[in-house]
Amino acid sequence: MAADTPFRKKVPEGKRGSFLNKLLGGLLLVAVIGGLIYSLFINNDPKVVLSSSVYRPEAVYRSAVLAQTGGLTYRTKFTYNEQAVINNLRQKFPEISSGSVELPIVGQSPIVSLTIAVPSYVYINSSRRYVLDADGVIISTNAVPAYKELLSLTDTSNIRVASGAKVLGSDAVHFINQIVSQCRSAHVLLSSLTLPAAAQELDVYTKDTPYFTKFYLGGDPLVQAGQFLAARHDFTANHIQPSQYLDVRVNGKVFYK
């Protein structure tokens, strides 16, 4: 064994191990802090998740997200404005009914989830055709090829409309949806719907009868649907049919002509 000299002094084993432990601990702490700092940053590589791509492919929505989040403001999780991203997308694409942005705890790529409204009607106004969702909002100015069998709803009021506009009140939308739902449950095939100039009236046309039926939008849709279906049954049983219309707007009474 070599003797200690002024130029080489033996380090005790205990102190050497303590030094190595401290060094490893320091390196681990630096790695943890570095990982935490790294995880606070966001890259501009979002993942977009759609409930439906009936209107546009995922790439179109992703391109819109990229355009908005290209600045330094969207480079950290502290400054990333998730709600602004969704609001901007909804203004640009009316078919988006809701959305959310998830910033991962560890990763750096945000996840943008978008709920796409389901087309419900082809809304016809001033001879122009639009796509209407179940909330009465115009979500497209062009009919969607995948939904050619959508029921048409003609509005004779000729009001000015635009993409993203709500053209029907919530009560009217609920009433129409309920009538359509009851008819479909009873296997009554509808051909079209019309909102005539008469206040609060909905005219329903079926594929198997020559007449249409008048409904009152301000009434109970279930009661009126029941009167409508019962009257249809009676007409068939008695081998008679109205030549022009059936009127179920008054509760407990049915008129026809």
Count helical runs. Answer: 5
The mean pLDDT is 85
CATH class call of the largest domain:
Alpha Beta
Relevant CATH superfamily of the largest domain = Cell division protein FtsQ/DivIB
CATH architecture of the largest domain: 3-Layer(aba) Sandwich
What descriptors fit this protein?
257 residues, alpha/beta, Ubiquitin-like (UB roll), Rossmann fold, 2 domains, 9-stranded mixed sheet, 3-stranded mixed sheet, 5 helices, 12 strands, 32% helix, elongated
Provide structural commentary:
The chain has helices spanning 13-39, 58-68, 82-92, 170-185, 221-238, and strands at residues 47-50, 96-102, 111-116, 119-125, 128-133, 138-140, 151-155, 190-195, 201-206, 212-216, 245-247, 255-256. The protein is of the alpha/beta class and 257 residues long. The protein has two domains: 47-116, membrane protein fhac (Ubiquitin-like (UB roll)), CATH 3.10.20.310; 119-256, Cell division protein FtsQ/DivIB (Rossmann fold, 3-Layer(aba) Sandwich), CATH 3.40.50.11690. The strands form two sheets. The chain has a nine-stranded mixed β-sheet, with helices on one face. Strands 1-3-2 form a three-stranded mixed β-sheet, covered by helices on one side. A hairpin with a 7-residue loop joins strand 11 and strand 12 (255-256). The longest helix is centred in the N-terminal third of the chain and has 27 residues, at 13-39. It is elongated and about 100 Å long. The chain starts with 12 loop residues before the first helix and ends with a strand. The model has no long low-confidence stretch (mean pLDDT 85).
